[in-house]
Write a structure and sequence with these properties.
54 strands, about 750 residues
């Protein structure tokens, strides 16, 4: 057994769960803290978490009779929910993640909401192992779903069927095939009131029509046409070939034309010419445009669909509208966006990776009618323009870049998709959000999308080019009182930027050592700077793709570090899940009353918490693998501090969709608790708040064996001072603004007070 498998087996079999050695940190999702764009405009949904390849559906989430918005990102199978205020002729969506918990956890690849049983409630259609599953909406006073069918079946041989309508008694009933990469059209194609399905066949370029033969409360499908519309997708481009005779249609349903291969397409149906028959909008995996196919069916029962023409510039139908241009693999969604009771068009990419990941959601307003649309382009970044959105792979950290005592936010990115950037195809940068609020009421403004101009630096020395997958970490490596930068990248290397700005000043960060010390952890280096062994010198802990943690011990001095490799398997722990492929560990360490706690994001998106660290660096740490049950998307990265000085730690969670979620700590209990025994008389601290120093007046308490400690909100002891007099002056001049705990204790017990430095 190799070491990797041994570690996984050890973790999974031992069920080692850390018990809190300090008061539990409790977090609640918070969307209220304001974030501004560079021009000063307020972001409407800053903490919504970003979009990559998203799918849109309408649903009444809060059961108020207004259709809200369900968004499914196939990048990590991530759900976002938005409440619609319903203001006529306005887009009024507000991010509200509290409804995510009511959706099934196993939605993957694609998820489209449709009402299949005519009860006015949207049900869920989603991918299920080469077919599709359906969850019925059973909401009454609260949103809820139950699994209706794990795999929807269809009668693939209706000509030879002997047990029509009985899937359990007829071998011709097979799972209705839908590819994981495709998007089917789930719509009432024949106008009889129930939902039918259009999907590409498993081998060919023809579209199958699966007609629903039941009533409005059934999923009884039959393959009614093996080449709906009598066309096929051109194998040389994203055009189509019309008037295909399709001789093998129903009489021989098992015969497929192997020369007409299908690699991936999206389907959207809508009526564009008010004749009741459904046109088809086709997106292709290798192209940037839509092809709209005109349906010439004028029959009474809509049972003679026949494509008569196609338009490769859809929806360019007037002088104010442009054709869809989404780099690769566009998908379309038809829903009422602006509350005018007319459906509008949204287009977004349907790819897993390697496609546009920012400003890639196009909204066309329909100014005419649902069945005869006139589309007008409104924005290329629908809802995205109101979010923190950095492309792919957000890694937030706190860093006071301008020395004003307020914690700013730096967000590292894997990168924005940019096919013009050579072989990289991405361009990575550090996004700087300055805290322009106050110590108690933070707010942030985007200042720079390429802080330090990282995207122009050839940090990849072997490739003589910039690097991707940026993971920043700040710490005073050289002991000069300001914070330096260690930047990890996707190649597994780290890069050292020295800060020469000085304490309390604007950071002046200069590249001092690319590929610092030759450190290479394989892939996805995610560093953190922390005194791990308690010798008052900063060490380096690095997460990586494998999910384990590398430890580099500082054997130098406070001002002249010398980082020496110790192990690639610190604590014999990993963030890789059983059966997974990599863990993408991303460490955060805090000192809680002298106890070191390690937190980490992961490839799966779960947050991990590790303990039993102090004095056990060569042993096995304990693990909580579903810490707080917080999940914001795959490849999570976290940052922790107290951003509003309320005495509780707050949490940022970045995800691979390119966004950041904010969780605010609450005061019940406090995130950092200092226990006290009350056998003491009262004491006093003044001035409070203070700007420079405080006086601790212990009044009539005993001075024998008396000590005063000043403790940070993270639980780290900053001052430990013996006292022998009633009044003691303690300087806080070199401390940043914030809340500190002052603990007095003697042989009789201890007492703790809070002090605020302004």
């Amino acid at each position: 057994m190799n070491l990797k498998n041994f570690l996984l087996l050890l973790l999974l079999s031992s069920n080692l769960i850390i018990s809190d050695l300090f008061a539990q940190i409790n977090f609640e999702r918070n969307n209220s803290i304001v974030v501004l764009k560079t021009n000063g405009d307020t972001l409407k949904n800053p903490w919504a978490g970003g979009f990559n390849s998203v799918q849109f559906s309408e649903i009444d989430l809060n059961l108020d009779g207004i259709k809200d918005l369900f968004v499914f990102d196939r990048t990590g199978n991530r759900i976002s929910t938005f409440i619609n205020a319903g203001t006529p002729n306005q887009v009024t969506y507000k991010h509200d993640p509290s409804y995510i918990q009511y959706f099934p956890e196993k939605l993957k690849s694609w998820a489209l909401l449709r009402d299949y049983n005519c009860d006015g409630k949207m049900d869920i259609f989603t991918y299920s192992s080469g077919a599709m599953a359906v969850y019925k909406n059973t909401s009454t006073t609260q949103l809820s779903f139950v699994l209706d069918s794990f795999k929807v079946h269809s009668d693939y041989n209706p000509d030879g069927n002997t047990n029509s309508g009985n899937p359990n008694g007829d071998p011709s009933y097979l799972p209705l095939y839908i590819s994981s990469s495709d998007l089917p059209a789930i719509d009432d194609i024949d106008g009889d009131g129930d939902l039918d399905v259009l999907t590409f066949s498993i081998l060919g370029s023809f579209i199958e029509y699966h007609k629903n033969n039941g009533n409005c409360n059934s999923l009884d499908f039959q393959l009614s046409n093996k080449c709906w519309g009598f066309f096929y997708e051109n194998g040389l481009n994203n055009g189509v070939v019309l008037n295909d005779t399709c001789q093998y249609n129903i009489n021989n349903p098992q015969k497929y034309d192997g020369n007409k291969k299908h690699s991936g397409s999206t389907l959207l149906t809508l009526d564009v010419d008010a004749n009741n028959s459904k046109e088809l909008v086709l997106g292709d995996v290798s192209y940037n445009n839509f092809v709209m196919l005109t349906n010439g069916d004028l029959s009474t029962n809509l049972d003679n669909s026949y494509i008569t023409a196609y338009d490769s510039l859809f929806p360019q139908n007037n002088s104010s509208t442009v054709a869809v241009d989404i780099d690769v693999f566009p998908a379309g969604y038809y829903l009422d966006v602006n509350n005018d009771n007319i459906k509008d068009l949204i287009a977004a990419p349907n790819c897993q990776s390697g496609c546009n990941n920012n400003e890639n959601v196009i909204y066309y307003n329909n100014t005419n009618a649902t069945n005869q649309p006139d589309f007008n382009l409104i924005t290329n970044s629908f809802l995205q323009e109101g979010m923190i959105e950095i492309g792919e792979g957000a890694h937030p950290v706190f860093f006071d870049y301008n020395g004003d005592g307020l914690e700013d936010i730096i967000v590292g990115s894997y990168g924005n998709y940019d096919p013009t950037n050579g072989s990289l195809n991405y361009r990575s940068g550090l996004y700087l959000y300055e805290n322009i609020g106050t110590i108690n009421n933070p707010s942030y403004q985007l200042i720079d999308t390429d802080y330090l101009n990282i995207s122009t630096m050839n940090l990849d020395i072997a490739g003589s080019r910039p690097t991707l997958g940026l993971h920043p970490a700040f710490g005073d490596l050289d002991g000069d009182g300001d914070l330096d930068l260690i930047l990890g990248d996707y190649n597994g290397k780290v890069h050292y930027f020295k800060n020469s700005g000085g304490p309390g000043n604007i950071a002046i960060l200069t590249l001092a050592a690319p590929e610092y010390l030759g450190i290479d952890v394989g892939q996805n280096a995610t560093p953190f700077i922390y005194d791990l062994n308690g010798d008052n010198k900063l060490d380096l802990i690095i997460g990586k793709t494998t999910g384990t943690f590398s430890y580099y011990k500082n054997t130098g001095t406070v001002s002249a570090p010398s980082l020496v490799f110790v192990t690639n398997y610190l604590g014999l722990i990993t963030t890789e899940q059983y059966g997974g492929f990599g863990g993408n560990s991303s460490p955060i360490l805090i000192d809680s009353l002298g106890t070191t706690i390690l937190y980490s994001g992961s490839k799966s998106g779960n947050l991990f918490k590790f303990g039993n660290i102090d004095g056990n660096l060569t042993g096995t740490f304990t693990r909580d693998s579903t810490y707080l049950n917080i999940w914001e998307g795959i490849s999570s990265n976290i940052a922790i501090t107290d951003i509003n000085n309320d005495g509780s730690l707050d949490l940022l969670v970045g995800n691979y969709s390119g966004g950041v979620a904010l969780y605010q700590g609450n005061n019940s209990p406090s995130s950092v608790e200092v226990k006290e025994t009350i056998n003491l008389r009262s004491l006093n601290i003044y001035p409070n708040p203070t700007q420079n120093s405080i006086v601790v007046d212990i009044q009539n308490n005993e001075t024998k064996n008396a000590t005063i400690e000043v403790i940070s909100i993270l639980g780290k002891t900053l001052i430990n001072q013996k006292i022998s007099s009633r009044k003691t002056t303690i300087s806080l001049e070199n401390f940043s603004q914030g809340i500190y705990l002052v603990k007095f204790y003697n042989d009789l017990g201890s007492k703790v007070l809070k002090v605020v430095k302004e």
